[in-house]
Design goal:
With 535 residues, this protein is an alpha/beta fold. It contains 20 helices and 13 strands. The relative contact order is 0.13. The protein binds 6-O-phosphono-beta-D-fructofuranose.
């Protein structure tokens, strides 16, 4: 295996000084370095990967057994080794009827039953068949959850606003009382449904916000408050303890990871917002990507190729971050969503076997909607000292046909950025510009230096016809599988998250000290900060 890594490194070194644009001397480059499935196009031709490197990356995937690991995941094997669990979020969107056995039981009937129960509930809320305490339909829904119990629904609800035809959805995640206070003060408890979403039903932020929301409901509704509550969890014993009636509780199994959970009950706010039929289209988009991932040949397999490009940038080029740049305002929450999906999954330093990794694993993921980012951090993307591979997302069409000029401008900006990153502006061109502006001598050189763009900075573009429930499902499933491919190559467990535990433990221990208990066993900085923060 190290032989393949070495060959990749040699390929990279040998290409030192070669420009990305020169790779387009190969007239077939775009065809070879792009892939399309069900209308979704991934163009990775504007990267420094050449044919030899791509072949080596495919060898690496073979060597690391990516296809076998993929099949094991879809079969329901316990690939989440540290938690001894299967990883089957794909089953939530599958249509197959052949049994899928986990722990000796076919899980498909339960998945179908839960989906039907969600649909029945969503239809009831949306139509007013399940009325609010003051009579009439619920007007608003507040989803209380954090991490995977928040980011997916927030991202998808915002992404699909043209499809909204149900109650307004609001999201409270932060334990900071500012968020729940700002949210609830705009709402009428008599027409607001509160969903408490927590896989474990122990997460302190969510439990704290849930208590506050329940008090808010009780103040207005008294004993009828429970009729304004629903819960989403794997811990059905704990939801019962909160007095939520069983027909308002939507369960899922531990083989659905939090950050992979929006396809099932955690997606209830999405279903309430867009309706069950469009939610099924969302699932269908993800299912189409699953089928593609399982069946497309390696050189046409979008998640595999996207993962291999990621490996190239992270391990061979050693770029520390990747930027997610949706030229689609409705995907403004996608970078935040992908931060959890990618960094909680692949931000690991030991292998599946608990040994230190020999190579870097997941990069820092960040981003912002284009064009806003252009007026903020793109300066660094174009002329900073770090190279940051960019991932641009853009739709051919928009939901605002009367604003065609806006969309044309948006698309032009998207294409301009990937072009500028690749081509840059040469010192000669910059000198000409400076001369045209009247600069001479040393000042001309200085002015030209400011205006020089090194270029040769890689980007990928994901293009889709229109942001629909189907295409959103495809895009999210694509990113899930890309994370899987990278994790498989690094040999890590992409489905646990031990790194979030320590902070939680320390926070619990600090609460009494914040309230005045002695803190002398804490370091001097923490002690001083406790004093500074006491009011
Ligand atoms: O703290 C991290 C985490 O465990 C995430 O993995 C998860 O999505 C989030 O907390 C919320 O967990 P829960 O759904 O159990 O409240």
């Amino acid at each position: 295996m190290s032989d393949i890594w070495n060959k990749l490194q040699e390929n990279h070194s040998a290409a030192d000084g070669r420009t990305i644009i020169s790779l387009f001397d190969d007239p077939e480059r775009f065809d070879r370095f792009s892939v399309e499935t069900d209308g979704l196009l991934l163009d990775f031709s504007k990267t420094g990967i050449d044919r030899a490197a791509l072949d080596l990356l495919q060898d690496l995937a073979d060597d690391r057994g990516v296809a076998g690991k993929r099949d094991a995941m879809f079969r329901g094997e316990r690939i989440n080794r540290s938690e001894d669990r299967a990883v089957l979020h794909t089953a939530l969107r599958a249509s197959g009827s052949e049994p899928l056995i986990v722990d000796g039981e076919d899980v498909r009937p339960g998945i179908r039953e839960t989906l039907r129960a969600m649909e029945n509930f969503a239809d009831g809320i949306r139509s007013g068949r399940i009325p609010a305490a003051k009579g009439g339909a619920f007007t608003d829904v507040v989803n209380i959850g954090i991490g995977g119990s928040d980011l997916g629904p927030v991202m998808a609800v915002r992404a699909l606003s043209p499809y909204h035809n149900g109650p307004r959805c609001h999201f409270v995640s932060n334990v900071d009382g500012a968020q729940i206070s700002d949210t609830l003060q705009k709402l009428d408890p008599r027409s607001t449904l509160v969903i408490i979403a927590s896989k474990t039903f122990t997460t302190i932020e969510t439990m704290t916000n849930a208590e506050t929301a329940i008090s808010w409901l009780k103040n207005a509704l008294g004993s009828k408050a429970v009729s304004h509550l629903a819960a989403v969890s794997t811990a059905l014993d704990k939801t019962a303890g909160m007095g939520i009636s069983p027909e308002r509780v939507f369960g899922f199994a531990d083989w659905v990871g939090g950050r992979y959970s929006l396809w099932g009950p955690v997606g209830l706010p999405i279903m309430l917002a867009i309706g069950p039929a469009e939610f099924r289209n969302f699932l269908a988009g993800a299912r189409a990507m699953d089928t593609h991932f399982l069946t497309a040949p390696a050189d046409r397999n979008m998640p595999l190729l996207m993962g291999l490009v990621g490996i190239w940038h992270r391990n061979i080029c050693r770029y520390p971050t990747r930027a997610i740049l949706p030229y689609d305002q409705r995907l403004a929450k996608l970078p935040a969503y992908l931060q959890q999906l990618d960094m909680e999954s692949n931000g690991k330093r030991v292998s599946n076997r608990g040994t230190p990794l020999e190579r870097s694993s997941g990069p820092v993921v960040w981003g912002e909607a284009g064009t806003n980012g252009q007026h903020a951090f793109y300066q660094l993307l174009h002329q900073g000292t770090e190279i940051i591979p960019a991932e641009l997302l853009v739709a051919a069409g928009s939901h605002e046909p009367s604003l065609r000029d806006h969309h044309d401008l948006l698309k032009a900006n998207c294409l301009a950025q990937s072009e500028a990153l690749m081509l840059g502006r040469s010192p000669e061109q910059a000198l000409e510009m400076a001369a045209a502006l009247g600069y001479t001598g040393e000042e001309q050189r200085v002015q030209a230096a400011y205006r020089t763009f090194p270029g040769n900075r890689p980007s990928m573009t994901l293009a889709y016809p229109l942001l629909t429930p189907f295409s959103l499902g495809q895009i999210i499933a694509l990113y899930e599988h890309r994370v899987f491919v990278e994790g498989a190559i690094w040999g890590i467990n992409s489905f646990d998250q031990w790194g979030v535990e320590l902070g939680k433990e320390l926070a619990s221990a600090l609460v009494p000290m914040i309230k005045g208990a002695p803190a002398e066993d804490k370091d001097l900085s923490t002690q001083a900060l406790i004093r500074k923060l006491s009011v």
